[in-house]
Amino acid sequence: MIVRRRRGAAVEDELVGDADRVGPRIPVSLGLAFISLGVFFQSRFAVDTPVWAMITAFCIQGLGTGLAMMPNTLAAMDSVTANLVAQASSVRSLNRQIAGALSVAVPRLRVVEASGVEPQLAQAAYSQVFLIASLSAAAAFVASFWLPGKEETMRLRSVRSSEQHPGLVTE
Predict the structure, then answer these.
(1) 64-77 pLDDT, tens per residue?
(2) CB 32, CB 87: distance < 8 Å
(3) How many angstroms separate the CA atoms of 97 and 109, rounded?
(4) What is the tens place of the pLDDT at every residue in 96-126?
């Protein structure tokens, strides 16, 4: 199942290509919408959910991941001055690692706490955790509208380029 999620992300990595054409706002917003939708579908999984429905949900989430992650990283790196890129990259990496650990540990605590020994309670807890994750992705979708568009991205890159190469004239 995870392979199918990665395939969706790989397809989108190819489709997104260079986000310079549209800026990061559009692909990140679309990606977060797909992530929210895919995770919402996962919140509806039950013991009798068909495999094709699971694969579809995983591919939708993977599609969103491919759309959102690369342009989001580029927008973050474009927003810092050239002399702080290394530090910003380190902080972003650390943040991603901590968020990844917490996004596994905290929901797992909720599932363990709620489930006890009954499978129905475990299923309900998993559904609740995925619904909360879907709502979190939807909130990130709303926040993504404040990402820079194409013009602002090109302006930031021009400023960063002139910082790195002071004698270079850019358009």
Answers:
(1) 998 998 888 888 88
(2) no
(3) 18
(4) 899 989 988 888 887 777 766 677 787 888 8
- pLDDT at position 52 over 80: yes
Report the distance separating Cα 1 and Cα 73, nearest Å.
Answer: 26
Residue 155: CB atoms within 10 A of its CB come to 12
Question: Rounded to two decimals, what is the model's pTM?
Answer: 0.79
Nearest Cα neighbor of 20 from 119, 124, 156, 169 is 156
User: 32, 18, 39: which is closest to 127 by C-alpha?
Assistant: 39
Report how far residue 108's alpha carbon sits from residue 87's, in angstroms, rounded to the nearest whole number: 32
The token pair that represents 114 in the structure block: 């709620």
